[in-house]
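Ticket #4471: structure output looks truncated?

Reporter: J.K.
Steps to reproduce: submitted the chain below (250 residues) through the standard prediction queue, then opened the result file.
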Amino acid sequence: MSFKDHFSGHANIYASFRPGYPEALFDFVSSLPERHALAWDCATGNGQAAVDLAERFDRVIATDASGPQLEHAIPHPKIEYRQAPAEASGLPDGSVDLLTVATAVHWFDFDRFYAEANRVLAPGGALAVWAYNLPRVSPEMDEIIDRLGHGIVQTCWPPERRWVDDDYRDLPFPFAEVEVPRLWIEERWNLGRFLHYIGTWSATQRYRKENGSDPRDLVRGEMERAWGDPDAERAIRWPIMMRAGRPRGN
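Returned output as attached by the reporter:
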């Protein structure tokens, strides 16, 4: 079974330079199911979300279709990592209390994945999917970031990126939805780490392959001037988009 793989080729830097999700996010999603025996973190990547779920559930099964991503997964005694596509988890019927998808559901075959979600979710179970949009630093930096993401590398994003650009508002989600809180990712990074993060964008990687040059070089000077001291850590915020709910009739 094929899957849309935009990250295996740079799984090592993806694991090192992606931001972490806030505790408030996991507190919220963990409040959704009636029980906390098993969470399934689908498309886990390097296990970033699975580790936080493991602090709140008895067991976590974390799956990803990408072997290279799983090679960089974070070990944890309560997490079992498995290689499996989102649409065919191999999990038993009605076994999962919480199903999470962090920054990945927009790549899935929606009909098949949601059928799988309905199959594996236990009575009282819930599903939460989320992602984050372009980072915010300062008005001057934000203009450069937007020009890079929406201009220079715009044609290098996969078409499914449109769901993120729309903040998941029109994402198909055939569940009984619950209201979600407004959440942000917050980090303090220096300029070097921030540029490494931009290097993990799938559009950055594709631009480099297609053009033989790095799109970051086109804005590096402007970013350096806007940032100031490159060793100074600055506050960076990513707005989180989320859809959450339970199977209808559950």
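Triage note (M.O.): checked the attachment and the full token line is present. The two ends are 30 Å apart (CA to CA).
Status: closed, working as intended.
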